[in-house]
Design a protein that fits this description.
Layout lengths: L2 E5 L2 E4 L4 E8 L7 E7 L6 E6 L6 E3 L7 E6 L4 E6 L8 E8 L13 E2 L3 E6 L1
Parallel strand pairs: 2-11
Antiparallel strand pairs: 1-3, 3-8, 4-5, 4-9, 5-6, 7-8, 9-10, 9-11
């Protein structure tokens, strides 16, 4: 049974930091491409960050470049998203996602499993 469980969301003031985690079970973790997406109220889900199965290649959405860092620990079957210099417009539900292709996953069409989401709220 495949499970993706996010944690680490919460309420933070603008300029603050949060670290999201996503634990993946039921998959061959070290072969998966991984990504984070987010959906704000009234908006479509958007790409945030992605990392290849080796961890060598990363990709970021334009709105988070330089502020967010994606990483993975294949020994712990866990992916992370370190978020710094948070802004009110970063408020959204954040979803982790897996792709069987191994490369960075930027498109929802490449995603085969989603987590349940974790709420991040940034106050001004």
């Amino acid at each position: 049974q495949v499970q993706l469980v996010e944690s680490g969301g919460g309420l933070v003031q603008a300029g603050g930091s949060l670290r999201l985690s996503c634990v993946v079970s039921g998959r061959f973790f070290s072969r998966l491409g991984l990504g984070w997406f987010r959906q704000a109220p009234g908006k479509e889900r958007e790409f945030v960050a992605a990392i290849s199965y080796t961890g060598v290649v990363t990709s970021y959405g334009d709105s988070v470049k330089g502020r967010f860092t994606i990483s993975r620990d294949n020994g712990k079957n866990t992916m992370y998203l370190q978020m710094s210099s948070l802004r009110p417009e970063d408020t959204a539900v954040y979803y982790c996602a897996t792709s069987p292709y191994g490369r960075v996953v930027r498109a929802e069409d490449d995603v085969d499993y989603w987590g349940q989401g974790t709420q991040v709220t940034v106050s001004s």
